[in-house]
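Q: Convert this sequence to structure tokens.
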Amino acid sequence: LLTVEIILMGGLAVILVIMLNSGVLQTQLIEAASSTYTPALRYLLDQNPPDQGGIAEWLESAASTPTLPLSFDGIDEMFVVGRDGRLLGSKSTHLPDSNQIGQPLDTQAIPGLDGPIQAALVGEEDIERLYTVARPGENVIMAIPIWDADHAQVLGVAAAIVSAPTIGSLLSEVAPVLGISLLLFTFISALIGTAYGFLAARKPVQRLNQLAEASVSWSQGDFSVIIDDPVQDELGQLTQRLNNMAGQLGHLLETRRELAILEERNRLARDLHDSVKQQAFAAAAQISGVRALLQRDPKEAASHLSEAEHLIYGLRQELTALILELRPAAFEGKGLAAAVGDYAANWSRQNGIVPDLRIQGERALPLPIEQALFRIVQEALANTARHSKAQQVEVVLNYTHDAIQLMVADDGCGFDMDHRRRGYGLRSMQERTEALGGILTIESVLEQGTTVSCTVPTKENSGE
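A:
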């Protein structure tokens, strides 16, 4: 609206300039003066002789209270000439003495007056010939023919010198109107702008709030929340991309969860196959031998039965170890050191080996680090119980300023590092360590034991 107002003001100024230079204002001036002056002068000029006293009174009244269109500033000089060219009345201080009342008017005394006077005396109808203007903005010299009632002959001429309007004077007349309209336009613009801003901002704010609520749910791991925003603008496109991202992340997490479950199942299947199944098969074979020898050699049958009991006891220990791995209640309000101590105590009762547990510089660590190290301890001790035939086991946790070091060492049978089998347990320990940016090393010598060492940085992970 303000722009429209400025355009209108500029357009008005252009129109005024055109009017000043095109003669439109002068035409309006002559038409207005003719309709105003003709009735009174016709009566005064139609008398014989013309009423010079009445003409003088009329000139006094007309010159003091002019009726002019637009911004014509006023009448400077005014004359009434009879049909014979004699001066019948004058309201001027610039005429020379030769131009006396009753004498022929010396039109040459005022530059530009002769043409309009002569045209008016002959009854010229073309308004453009009834006035002269030397330059735009200067005085307008005009002559108006006064016709009789029948419009048959010219009774005389009313001539005047009028101060022409300027751009400034014209604008000063319309300025109050423009000022009021500008205030009105500004007030309306403020109301409309405020209302539009309020109404236009409500919907984007609601959409942004919906986006913020969804982002909170996503940050908590709930990627099932979808933002319902059908608008196809930039914000709507961003929302659609975020919905797609949330769906992909949810699918990725679900896939990782399924893979983790599958990995754990494969590990359990391998452990059950390598230990529990083999011991169960061996125990079944011993029981079959007992059945075959029970009648003919009870002593030998008792030996097989004793071996079967021993195998079943080992089978129970293997199952207990697997159950503890599936359900590590170690972190229910405890730290890594306490969890490892509890697990080592249970492991000692199951396997008859008392581990040497040493913990140095204990402090709290992020949960992912503690869980990963606890699993590595579980796996290392499980391998010791299954394969090493060790008599002594050492478990060391050493907390430093920016890392934690774990070592599990035994004095068992060891294995050949050049021909070791890359089992699931070793691979699992390696993957857990690498996921934390750590380093895992395994050293083993035949008949001298095995050492598992792990170093994990803690400074970056713990936010120090």
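The first strand starts at residue 74 and ends at 82.
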